[in-house]
Specification:
By secondary structure, the chain is of the alpha+beta class. Helix content is 39%, strand content 31%. The two termini are 16 Å apart.
Length: 189
Amino acid sequence: IEAAIRAKGGTVEEYNKQRLITLENELGLAFVEPDLALVGVPASVRRAIDTKASGKNVTGNANVMRLVRDFDSGNAWVVANIEAATSGNVIPAEIKHQLPPITWLALNARVNDGVSAMVRAEARDEAAANNLRDVIRGLVALARLQTAQHQELAQLVNSLELGGQGTTVSLGLTIPPGVIDMLGALRGG
């Protein structure tokens, strides 16, 4: 991974006793434990490295840990507080107002020759969750209409499972190896 990023013009530095690999100011990557990688914008990765070095950790955040425990399978996961991520001026106001009223977003994946994933969103209220489920149903129906000619994409779309109740919306999916190969070919390898 480091060699691939360096080949694209990336750099490697020692930051707070960790190797930090960066590509311009867009991507930061650090392997902070044998089975744990930090990925994000370099400033966020540095902040996470500093937090780890200070002895503080995410296990004190009950909401994050609840979502992580719910996803005890898989080998990759992401948990985000959407309200915290959209505060400030990072996202333009025009876009913020178009986002659905979601408080938490969690992703769990099992990555091997393909990818199996579960995405879960927690909406602010049941009405928002119902609206989000309706939007997803519509997008899935549209995708099914568009994938008739592409067997690999049809497999992906047919694997989508919408679920959840109350304020929770979940979407399970499987990305077969053929779709990954097809996307790689579209990008030129």
